[in-house]
Specification:
Largest sheet of chain A: none
Largest sheet of chain B: 2 strands, antiparallel
Oligomer: heterodimer
CATH architecture of chain A: Up-down Bundle
Radius of gyration of chain A: 18 Å
Helix content of chain B: 55-70%
Distance between the termini of chain B: 26 Å
Shape of chain A: elongated
Structural class of chain A: mainly alpha
Number of strands of chain A: 0
CATH topology of chain A: Four Helix Bundle (Hemerythrin (Met), subunit A)
Number of strands of chain B: 2
Order of helices and strands of chain A: HHHHH
Radius of gyration of chain B: 24 Å
Number of helices of chain A: 5
CATH superfamily of the largest domain in chain B: Cytochrome c oxidase-like, subunit I domain
CATH superfamily of chain A: Cytochrome c oxidase, subunit III, four-helix bundle
Number of domains of chain B: 2
Helix content of chain A: over 70%
Number of domains of chain A: 1
Largest interface: A-B, 38 and 42 residues
């Protein structure tokens, strides 16, 4: 008799993990393009008007923290402590939303000047990072809603773990962009 | 009526409401139209009002398109099949068992495979019609079909884009891959049926977007979307970027699904060294898709942002090489994304038709894998005219080196046919033609890898002939071979062998007569991208156009023959008419409600024809 993890067999769980990592790995390619394209384009110039704290360091730290918090919900699913799962996911969501807002803030403070080739790598990186953060938040939202429907907690094991993966890998991707934009 | 959509709670509960609803495709179109109007209006009239306030702007049409595609997906059934279950709500979705199941969201890999096949055939006919218009224009040395060169170039762009992204990339992978891979590896379903169900519906959206691009204005870049040239065009290029985005996203989803299916859904005993050759082809091409499609999506996103904001990435940098580098990083692997499944098909069909053990199977697999690896190291040979000698040499070297693993595919094919009693059926004939055609395409490719030749022939018809020999000559011929080979599996009926062979010979002659002369045209100085040309090139262009139109007619006749035999061909006496040992032929033809009542247990190679023993044993029980 195969021991089920939630409503999945161990093999199905491995399959889901593999596919999610495959998807995320493939989505690192655009980030890699953004980091490397600066050699061909006009460097990763960041406008002096952009606050390096609000648009750079703060979202980086917040997204990393949100990823760690989301992972805290995964063992709680196994032990069946629903309150802890919900509180961890809620906390990760709140930190993630604040991180998202601080991350895309430069999009609204940037002057869109068609005459200058400078600053586009930064702007698009912000947009790409923001898109993936939004994706991670939508995943968390859907899992959170399903958790609230009252079905057995263990049935949501994979949903919670997938949320943690999405948050973590999105945070790592953004960290790479942040280093490329502000440090290299 | 049967219901196939379960919810994400995992208890399989599905509410059968029995309520009447609009046909999903009609609903999808209606929702898409409404979404487009709302979001386009919001942008053009409220948030980003332009001088003289046009109703459709580049920004508004982009946002409107994104909303329309989302609404289209939701309308065809993703709302009930994916979104509502994802948020824990009960689903109300019924799937008919008749033809209507092909016109709605589905999670059945065979339905999805057929939907992909229909979509890619639709793209093939549309892009083929564009090709006919182009050849009709080139029948005469002056403009006489199109009113201006821009209209001709837009048609060239639509032809190339639809052919590459909805036929070359999709036909064998999304279509045959989705239908056959679960069957070939002994599974009743794919790994991620919902993902697959969504991805198919992006293909018609993508094709329609590219075909409708002239509504926004001409674009003169061809399927490559070259910058900064694209920046000078009217807004048609916006729909090029968006259409390709939909099509590549679809292929990316297929790649994830097929990779996970092959790795995790194999029947007991189907070890790595027993994986079918077609599945190896799907695996290698999926890995190529996973790496290179996101790369080109990012590049096109930069181009799109350059068109709609604008963020002048490629226009103000001043060097066309900037775009060329990032485009061809994807562009050359794309050729192998198209052609690797054809290599795998050769190795799938020939041992069956010869009833002879596949020769040097492991070298066939190694060839597929190394073609995949090396395809990412050759891109710059498309830019030799812009490079120094020192930069050319490594790319010239790797381009020539890639002919070695490609040669393995020939080694395996020829070794398998050697002293085999090959049944000269229509699929066999088409595979042999594909082998011949790709040989011409490959040899001329090696020639073009040589900088001395390349610099002379760059952007001439020689290059066009070369890549059509690889794409049509290898992939499209193999695609038709696959259709004839698996038609009995899909329909339970057999085609007419005499008609099939006659039509195969027809397209082979027409293809070679048209495209071999293009080599000569190129050598005589015929340039690409021109609807008018010097008078001395007209006689040969006239001949090329006649044979190209005959080729187009030949393809249409094949489609009519296949479609007719699908419904009216003689019924099979045997579910395995080719006496193949691969698993898909162990299931019923056509498969029943499930592929396998009992999951088979694989005990030996599918390609060992040294004796009569089958590759499967008594079923090991359902998994």
């Amino acid at each position: 008799m195969v021991e089920m993890i939630g409503n999945l067999t161990p093999r199905e769980l491995r399959q889901n993990r593999f596919a999610l990592l495959l998807f995320v790995t493939s989505q690192l390619v655009p980030i890699f393009v953004m980091i490397n394209i600066r050699f061909m384009l006009a460097d990763t110039y960041v406008s002096a008007r952009v606050d390096p704290l609000v648009g750079g360091l703060l979202p980086t730290l917040l997204l990393l923290i949100a990823g760690v918090v989301a992972w805290g919900a995964v063992p709680a699913v196994k032990t069946g402590t629903a309150a802890r799962v919900k509180s961890r996911l809620l906390l990760a969501g709140v930190i993630g939303v604040i991180g998202f807002i601080t991350q895309i803030w430069p999009l609204f403070s940037h002057a869109y000047d068609a005459l200058s080739p400078f600053g586009e790598v930064h702007l698009v990186s912000v947009g790409v990072g923001g898109f993936y953060t939004l994706l991670a938040l939508i995943v968390l939202w859907s899992v959170g809603v399903r958790l609230g429907k009252g079905s057995p907690l263990r049935a949501h094991y994979w949903g919670v773990e997938a949320t943690a993966w999405m948050f973590s890998l999105n945070a790592v991707g953004w960290l790479a962009l942040y280093i490329a934009l502000f440090w290299l | 009526m049967s219901s196939i959509v379960s919810d994400l709670k995992g208890d399989g509960s599905t509410v059968m409401s029995g309520r009447k609803m609009m046909p999903p495709v009609v609903r999808g179109l209606l929702w898409a139209l409404i979404a487009f109007l709302i979001f386009n209006t919001l942008i053009s009239e409220v948030f980003d009002r332009m001088p003289y306030h046009p109703f459709v702007t580049r920004a508004s049409v982009t946002v409107g398109w994104l909303a329309a595609v989302c609404a289209w997906l939701l309308g065809v059934g993703v709302w009930e099949g994916v979104v509502k279950p994802a948020f824990g709500r009960e689903t109300h979705w019924e799937t008919p068992t008749d033809w209507r199941k092909y016109f709605m969201y589905s999670t059945d890999h065979r339905v999805i495979g057929m939907q992909y096949i229909f979509s890619s055939f639709g793209g093939f006919l549309i892009a083929g019609f564009a090709a006919m218009l182009m050849r009709l224009e080139l029948l005469n040395r002056n403009l006489w079909v199109f009113s201006n060169p821009g209209a001709y170039l837009s048609t060239v762009g639509i032809h190339g884009t639809v052919m590459m992204f909805s036929v070359g990339t999709v036909g064998l992978v999304g279509g045959f891959g989705n239908y056959l891979i679960p069957l070939m590896i002994g599974s009743n379903k794919s790994a991620f049926p919902r993902l697959s169900g969504i991805s198919q519906w992006l293909v018609p959206a993508g094709i329609a977007t590219v075909v409708l691009s002239p509504l926004l204005g001409q674009w003169t870049t061809g399927w490559r979307g070259y910058q900064p040239l694209a920046g000078q065009d009217p807004a048609g290029i916006v729909f090029y970027y968006l259409g390709v985005f939909a099509l590549t996203t679809s292929s990316l989803m297929v790649a994830i699904n097929l990779t996970a299916t092959i790795l995790f859904k194999r029947a007991p005993g189907l070890t790595w060294n027993r994986i079918p050759m077609f599945a190896w082809g799907m695996l290698t091409v999926s890995l190529l898709n996973l790496i290179w499609l996101p790369e080109i999506q990012m590049t096109f996103l930069l181009g799109l942002l350059g068109a709609i904001i604008p963020l002048p990435f490629f226009t103000q940098v001043g060097s066309p090489l900037t775009y060329l580098e990032v485009f061809w990083l994807f562009g050359h692997p794309e050729v192998y994304i198209v052609v690797v499944p054809a290599f795998a098909l050769w190795q799938e069909i020939l041992p069956v038709m010869g009833q002879k053990t596949l020769f040097a199977r492991q070298w066939g697999v190694i060839g597929l894998v190394f073609v995949m690896i090396l395809s990412g190291m050759v891109w710059a040979h498309h830019m030799f005219t812009n490079m120094s000698n020192g930069q050319m040499l490594p790319f010239s070297f790797f381009t020539e080196i890639i002919s070695i693993p490609t040669g393995f595919a020939y080694l395996v094919a020829i070794g398998t046919m050697w002293r085999a009693r090959l049944r000269l059926t229509t699929p066999t004939l088409l595979v042999l033609m594909s082998l011949f055609n790709f040989l011409i395409g490959g040899v001329t490719g090696v020639m073009l890898a040589d900088p001395v030749v390349n610099l002379q022939l760059h952007d001439s018809f020689f290059v066009i002939a070369h890549f059509h020999y690889t794409i049509i000559g290898a992939m499209i011929f193999s695609w038709f071979a696959a259709f004839y080979y698996w038609l009995p599996k899909f329909s339970g009926r057999m085609y007419n062998e005499r008609v099939g062979k006659t039509l195969a010979v027809w397209i082979f002659i027409a293809f070679n007569a048209a495209f071999f002369q293009m080599f000569l045209l190129g050598l005589h100085g015929m340039n690409r991208w021109v609807p008018v040309y010097p008078g001395y090139l007209q006689p040969m262009n006239f001949e090329v156009s006649i044979f190209a139109i005959l080729l187009g007619i030949g393809f249409v006749l094949h489609l009519i023959h296949i479609a007719w035999m699908w419904h009216h061909g003689p019924l099979l006496n045997d579910r395995n008419p080719w006496r193949s040992k691969t698993l898909e032929w162990q299931a019923a033809s056509p498969p029943g409600a499930v592929n396998f009542e009992k999951i088979p247990h694989v005990v030996r190679s599918f390609y060992d024809y040294s004796d009569e023993r089958m590759a499967v044993e008594e079923p090991a029980g359902e998994r």
